[in-house]
Amino acid sequence: MALEHFLPADDIRTLFSTSMSRMYQQEVPQYGTLMQLVAEVNEQTLAGEPALQQQLQDNGELERLSLERHGAIRVGTAAELNMLRRIFAIMGMYPVSYYDLSEAGVPVHSTAFRPVDEASLRHNPFRIFTSLLRLELIADDALRAQAAEILARRDIFTATARKLVAQAEEQGGLTADQARQFVAEVLETFRWHQHATVDLATYQALQDAHRLIADVVCFRGPHINHLTPRTLDIDTVQQQMPAVGINPKAVIEGPPRRRCPILLRQTSFTALEEAIHFAGDQAGTHTARFGEIEQRGMALTPKGRALYDELLNRSRQAPAQADNETHQRQLAAAFADFPDDEHSLRTQQLGYFRYSLTEAGRQQAGHGGAGGDLNALIEAGLVQATPITYEDFLPVSAAGIFQSNLGGTHHQAYAQNANQAAFEQALGCPVRDEFALYATLQDDSARQVLQALGA
Ligand code: OOG
Ligand code: NI
Q: What is the domain range of residue 178?
C-alpha cells in the first residue's frame, strides 16, 4: 500500500488524545471542571499579557492551548509495557528518559512516551508517563507470587488492538479507517473498571503492601489515572480550585515562579474515592484517579539540572510546608542562586536555546561573510536565541504527585536501586536520553543560522 494512504502518526496521536480526554471527562466530571477553570485562567492571563498572546500565536500554540499535555498509567508486567511501546510508536510516541521512583518509596520505574521531533511536538505534544510495577519490591513472598499470578491471568489489550498493531507494523502505518478503529480499541485499555478482578481480602492485602500495588494488580486494565492540561498561570489555578469545588494537593511541585520559567511546575487535585464491586459480591472503594495541571519552562542542560537538583535539595532541608504560599517562599529563597535572565542562562550554559535569524539576519543571509561566533552574531542583532521548552518529567515532582494520592501513608524509600537495564529489557528497547534530544535541537538550529549567514 502506498505511503500516502496512511494517516500520519501525529494525527493518530491527536485522535487518541482527544478521545481519551472525552472519555476521562465523562468518567471523572471533576476533571471537566478543572479543564474549564484552566481555560478561563488561560484566557484571563492572555488578556493581561498581550506579548504572551502574540508569542503563542506566532508559535501556533493558541489553538491547542488548554488541551491535554500528558496523562499517566501504571502497568504490571514486562509484556504489558512491551506492547504499549508498540502501540505508542504507531502514534509517534517514543520512550524518553528513565525515572526511578523507588527512591521516593513508590515501587515503580517509569518512562515517558512522547513525540521527539520538533514538528511533531508542535503538532501535538501529548505524552504518557508510563510506570511499570516492580513486584520484586513486595517483601512478602506469598503475596508477591499471588500478585504475579493475578497479573499473568489478564490481557489488558483487546484482540482487535493486537491485530491492528501487527498490521500497522507490517504495512508501515494505518489507513484513516484503521486508525480510528485502532484508537477506539486502544482506548479500551485505558478505561475505568468498577469491577475488581479480586476479592476484597486480596485487595486489602495488596493495599497494605502498598496502595499502588493494589491499583495496578486488582483491575482488568491500567485505567488512565490522570490527564493534564497546560496552564499559563499555575499559581492562580491552584488558588482558585477550592472555589470551584476541587481540592488541590498541598503544594505546587517543581521550581518556584520565575521571570524565566524553567523545567516544569505541576499541581493536582487529590484522587477521588470511587465505589468498586469486588469479586464475591463485596462492595468497597478505591482511590486512584485525579486531575493535574502543568506549566512548562525552559529545558536545562546537565549543568543547569545539577544546579536545580542542588537548590531543590537545599530547600527540602527545611521542614516541609503544609501551605503552598510558605512553600513557594521557601523555594524562592533557595532559588535566588539560580540566574533568572535569559542572557545568563544561555551564556552560563544552564539552559537550551533555539537559534534563529532576526529580520536583520534574514536580510544579511545569503550575502555571507558575517563572521564570528553565535554570541557575536547575537550581539550584532543578526541572530536571536529563544528558550527550548522542557518536554519531560521530574522524578521528585512525580513522586510528590504519586504521594499526594496515596492517602497520607508515608512510605520508606526502597533499598533496591534504580534498574534501568531491567526496565529497558521489559520495554524492548533503550529509552532515549532527554539531554541528547535537547542538545541536538539546539545544535541543529545553531548550525542552520551559521550556515545561512556564511559565518
Ligand atoms: C504518575 C505520576 C507522575 C507527573 O506528571 O509527574 C506524573 C502516576 O501517578 O502514575 O504523572
Ligand atoms: Ni502527571
A: 3-296+390-418
- 122 shares its domain with 224: yes
Question: From the CB of 129, is ligand 1 less than 6 Å away?
Answer: yes
Distance of CA 290 to the CA centre of its chain: 14
- Taking the CA of residue 129 as reference, the ligand 1 atom at the shortest distance is 11
Question: Are 245 and 320 members of one domain?
Answer: no
* CA dist., res. 69 & res. 66, Å (int): 9
Number of the ligand 1 atom closest to the C-alpha atom of 71: 11
- Ligand 1 pocket, mutate which of 393, 396, 405, 434 (most atoms under 8 A from CB): 393
CA atoms within 13 A on the CB side of 213: 27
Note the pLDDT of residue 411: 66
Could you give the angle at the alpha carbon of 203 between the alpha carbons of 292 and 30, nearest 5°?
25
**Residue 26 within any structural domain of the chain:** yes
Do 107 and 249 fall within a single domain? yes
209 contact partners, CB below 8 Å, separation of at least 6: 138, 139, 140, 143
To test the pocket of ligand 1, the residue of 129, 224, 293, 411 to mutate (highest count of ligand atoms within 8 Å of its CB) is 129
- Residue nearest atom 1 in ligand 1 by C-alpha distance: 72
* Residue positions counted in the chain: 455
Strands 195-199 and 273-279: parallel
* pLDDT mean by block of 10 residues, the chain; 455 residues: 78 96 94 94 95 85 82 97 98 98 91 95 94 93 95 97 98 97 98 96 94 95 95 95 93 95 95 93 93 96 98 88 88 95 97 95 81 87 94 93 73 79 98 98 95 85
**What's the gap in Å between 211 CA and the centre of ligand 1?**
15
* Number of neighbours of residue 415 by Cβ within 10 angstroms: 7
User: Is residue 217 assigned to a domain?
Assistant: yes
Residue 445, in any domain of the structure: no
Domain boundary among 340, 371, 399: 340
ipTM score: 0.99
> How many distinct structural domains can be found in the chain?
2
Sorted by sequence, the CB contacts under 8 Å of residue 265 that are 6+ apart come out as 234, 252, 253, 254, 255, 257, 294, 295, 296, 297
- Kindly state whether residue 17 falls inside one of the protein's structural domains: yes
Residues 196, 200, 203: CA angle, nearest 5 degrees? 70
Nearest CA-CA partner of 198 in 145, 140, 146: 146
pLDDT at 301: 98
Which atom of ligand 1 lies at the shortest distance from residue 394's CA? 6
